[in-house]
Amino acid sequence: GDVAINPTTGLELPALRGARERIATPKEAAALINALPVADRALWATAMYAGLRLGELMALDWSAVDFDAGVIRVERSWDPREGFIEPKSRAGRRFVPIPSALRRPLLEHQLQQGRGGKGLVFGRSEARPFNPSSVQRRARIAWSATELVRITPHECRHTFASMMIAAGVNAKALSTYMGHANIAITMDRYGHLMPGNEQEAAGLLDAYLDGAASLGGAT
């Protein structure tokens, strides 16, 4: 039916131009990260370039960061009341690719942290998650000093989705990386960012048909 394109079906859906829909451009994202204290850069880079939720960032362990395979295994989250918890849905347990823009800050963070790649990636200790309010306060101070517009971890997730779409990643793959329960959620929240207006679709089909004909399809 029409569920996949009904904007009222997603509980987290903000208005298209609401505050929660802030999306940083690639250039702005890099500037926001570089303006931060060195110890915080990898955290925000993971939010921006891997799209992890805040609780997933808090629960991320180095054992789930596979540099050889180039993926982060999202296996758990952090709940303020319950502590470490399993993903709420099967889709929440997933593999997210590590792009070069994230690999470098993660490796630098691991070296600087000096724990030999053990324990929580961004924790105050190997077993104690970071304090979100402290992290965001440090970021606000840094961004204010450099006259950059602040961004929230949730908006970093929007930014990740928008960059993946702009890079040409298809909706099904994006849905998997975001940990959405189904592709309808992805389309509800990010369909307006995806290419596909009628003129573009017709142009793509024309180009395909012209190419097929030139290869000898007109027999």
Structure write-up:
The chain is mainly alpha-helical. The chain is 48% helix and 7% strand. It contains nine helices and five strands; from the N terminus they run αααβββββαααααα. It has helices at 26-34, 38-50, 54-59, 100-113, 132-145, 153-166, 171-178, 183-190, 198-217; strands spanning 65-66, 71-74, 77-79, 83-85, 94-97. The chain is globular. The model is unreliable at 1-20 (pLDDT under 50).
User: Which class best fits the helix and strand makeup?
Assistant: mainly alpha
* N-to-C span: 40 Å
Number of DSSP helical runs: 9
Side by side, the strands of the main sheet go: 1-2-5
Characterize the largest beta sheet: strand count, sense, and whether it forms a barrel.
3 strands, antiparallel
Low-pLDDT regions: 1-20
Tally the beta strands.
Answer: 5
Assign a percent range to the helix content: 40-55%
Rg of Cα set:
20 Å
Which whole number gives the mean pLDDT? 89
Can you lay out the helices and strands and say which pair or pack?
Blueprint: H1 26-34, H2 38-50, H3 54-59, E1 65-66, E2 71-74, E3 77-79, E4 83-85, E5 94-97, H4 100-113, H5 132-145, H6 153-166, H7 171-178, H8 183-190, H9 198-217
Antiparallel strand pairs: 1-2, 2-5, 3-4
